[in-house]
Write a structure and sequence with these properties.
The complex is a heterodimer of chains A (about 325) and B (about 140). By secondary structure, chain A is an alpha/beta fold. In chain A, strand 11 and strand 12 form a beta hairpin. The longest helix of chain A is centred in the middle third of the chain and has 18 residues. Chain A is elongated. Chain B has a two-stranded antiparallel ribbon with strand order 1-2. Classes of the chains: A alpha/beta (about 325), B mainly alpha (about 140). The interface between A and B is medium-sized, with 30 and 30 residues.
């Protein structure tokens, strides 16, 4: 294959003014974004930010209380949508009394016409899982491997994975990420990978969705989002932000002694004596998490295509 | 075939690391015209990086005329960067080997020799150009 996996014109996920309530409290509030098909998207944010709620809503497990959420062009959990979506919840629910072989057989039976037995076997074999072992007797890492084998073998167009690698050792994590990337390369699968460990996503993901406080704060190609920001370091004394920052959006600014370190979204050239560099993904994410008041930034490809209520985005 | 090593701490963009490693393999003759580069799937299955990163690197190499994509078949090397002057037994290489022996005999260690060569290279060729996409921008 020589074509890029993503299809900028096709949409995997699209939310407009989405509100989801969880245990009667709003877990997502006024969320608007679009995820083009074929992307590997990092869904990041602190614990309790709404990542799991968003994935569960996309899987059709939570009904929106307001706004709209479209998955592969249809209704989340709808009859034509559900077979094309693979969702793995954080607790990786499996039946403890079934054996490994039973679990895979069940996967095949529940996904007629889509099940890729060879892929499931490959992943399970690579982890030295014994066919006859009961799921309840497996280690955390082995259970994760089996759960990922189930969800991969379904051959979904959209994979929603909630903290999938959390209990894997570094070797298994690398192997499963590699298997996931090979999947994405071969089938142009759209992947959403929720995690709060940003550094482990940096190489694997080409799209970013940053959620905090129930809202989408940043969305777009990681490359473009990084290129839209600069880490600025220089000398600054006195209160308030340097005059030179006025035309730009300051996401975060800290002063230690005479040294000022800031993350800005430049609008035109930055004047003055400043050292500037492109942030790492981790710096970008952390700065936005520390500054909840920074304005929302959606890359053009992440703007919802559906008629968006204009006020929904401005209010964000 | 080549195998890519991705250094996550290097600060060099991942796709550029692949571009550099292909160029290096072409210089060393590890890859010669007609050879097939590993597919994106093969690379990501080994390195766990995003497939589009590999494809971006291959497009850059294509743009430079070093490789070409043949739809449905893969990406193939078009031309070599190997220079006969650098091969084993070539006079320039033999002279350098001889010089290195003398430097060592004079008591220089590997780092001294590397520093000396870097200094002489900079005199002759100018400063080593930094990679354009390494994200460093002077603004002072």
């Amino acid at each position: 294959m020589t074509d890029l996996t993503f299809r900028p014109g096709r949409t995997a996920l699209e939310a407009v003014g989405l509100e989801v309530r969880h245990r009667r409290r709003p877990a997502l509030n006024d969320c608007s974004f679009r995820l083009p098909a074929g992307r590997v998207c990092a869904l990041v944010g602190p614990n309790g930010a709404g990542k799991s709620t968003l994935l569960a809503a996309a899987a059709g497990l939570h009904k929106p209380a307001g706004g709209t959420l479209r998955v592969l062009g249809g209704t989340p959990g709808g009859r034509d949508v559900r077979p094309r979506v693979g969702y793995l919840a954080q607790d990786k629910p499996l039946y403890p009394n079934l054996t490994v072989a039973d679990t895979l057989r069940m996967g095949g039976t529940l996904n007629p016409g889509r099940w890729d037995e060879a892929a499931a076997q490959r992943l399970v074999r690579a982890g030295d899982l014994d066919d006859g072992a009961r799921v309840g007797s497996l280690s955390g890492g082995q259970r994760t491997r089996l759960a990922l084998a189930l969800v991969f073998a379904k051959r979904p167009e959209l994979l929603l994975l909630d903290e999938p690698m959390a209990d894997l050792d570094p070797l298994a994590r690398h192997a499963m990420t590699a298997a996931l990337m090979a999947e994405a390369a071969e089938h142009a699968t759209t992947v959403v990978l929720a995690s709060h460990v940003v550094s482990e996503l940096e190489e694997a993901c080409d799209y970013l969705l940053l959620v905090s406080g129930g809202r989408v704060r940043l969305a777009g190609e990681t490359e473009d989002l990084l290129a839209a920001h600069r880490v600025v370091v220089g000398r600054h004394e006195g209160p308030g932000a340097p005059r030179e920052f006025a035309p730009h959006t300051v996401v975060e600014s800290r002063t230690t002694g005479r040294q000022l370190t800031a993350l800005i979204r430049p609008d035109g050239e930055l004047t003055g004596r400043w050292e500037t560099s492109e942030p790492s993904l981790e710096e970008l994410v952390l700065a936005h998490l520390r500054s909840p008041e920074a304005p929302v930034l959606l890359a053009p490809s992440a703007e919802p295509r559906a008629a968006a209520p204009a006020k929904a985005r401005e209010a964000a | 075939m080549v195998e890519f090593r991705i250094d996550r701490r290097s600060g060099v963009a991942t796709y550029l690391q692949i571009v550099h490693q292909v160029r290096q393999a072409l210089r060393l003759g590890l890859l010669t015209p007609g050879d097939k580069l590993p597919t994106a799937k093969e690379v990501v299955a080994a390195t766990a990086i995003n497939p589009n990163t590999v494809l971006k690197a291959y497009r850059e190499l294509d743009r430079e005329g070093l490789v070409e994509a043949r739809p449905g078949l893969g990406t193939f090397v078009r031309r070599s960067l190997a220079r006969p002057e650098t091969a084993d037994g070539a006079p320039l290489r033999a002279e350098l080997a001889d010089w290195t022996r003398r430097a060592r005999a004079a008591g220089l260690d590997r780092e001294d020799v590397a520093a000396l060569i870097t200094a002489v290279l900079e005199d002759s060729f100018g400063e080593h150009p930094q990679d354009v996409h390494d994200g460093q921008e002077g603004n002072a």
